[in-house]
Amino acid sequence: MKTTIFTTLFIILVSVSGFSQKHLGVFDAVKLNDSTTLAMCLNSGLKTNTANATGNTLLMEASKNGSYAVAKLLLAHGAKVNAQNELGNTALMEATLRGDAQMTALLLHAGANASIINSVGETAFTIAEGFDQTAIAKLLTAGNQNTKEGYAKLR
């Protein structure tokens, strides 16, 4: 009963608040790893690949914040794992920047492309190398998805 009331109030608040606040509330749920609230929003019509003002998708924000339950939910609902924000970064790059091997593995398993190059010429692999994230670099190279030679060919 309390969940139903909370859901109803949340949906009403989201509807009345306007466009920008609607996304702020949803992005807050993602940052807090609140998969229950996010599931309710998705079931109420929220687009899985909703992005904020800088182009970060819900999945990118989940990746940036270590929100594993939310990331799994978004991927199960068809989130674009290789979407890029204004800087060309992907969710995989965000996980790499955090040094989050668990999120990196989850995204790779979901089909993340480690060879995507962002606006400053980096891939997830070069980010991992630059921050001495050897465990992540090993994950990224495990399937020959991205090696130094492969990166050189892409440039």
TrEMBL record:
<dbReference type="Pfam" id="PF12796">
    <property type="entry name" value="Ank_2"/>
</dbReference>
<keyword id="KW-0040">ANK repeat</keyword>
<keyword id="KW-0677">Repeat</keyword>
<dbReference type="GO" id="GO:0004842">
    <property type="term" value="F:ubiquitin-protein transferase activity"/>
</dbReference>
<dbReference type="GO" id="GO:0085020">
    <property type="term" value="P:protein K6-linked ubiquitination"/>
</dbReference>
<feature type="repeat" description="ANK">
    <location>
        <begin position="87"/>
        <end position="119"/>
    </location>
</feature>
<protein>
    <submittedName>
        <fullName>Uncharacterized protein</fullName>
    </submittedName>
</protein>
<dbReference type="InterPro" id="IPR002110">
    <property type="entry name" value="Ankyrin_rpt"/>
</dbReference>
<feature type="repeat" description="ANK">
    <location>
        <begin position="54"/>
        <end position="86"/>
    </location>
</feature>
<dbReference type="InterPro" id="IPR036770">
    <property type="entry name" value="Ankyrin_rpt-contain_sf"/>
</dbReference>
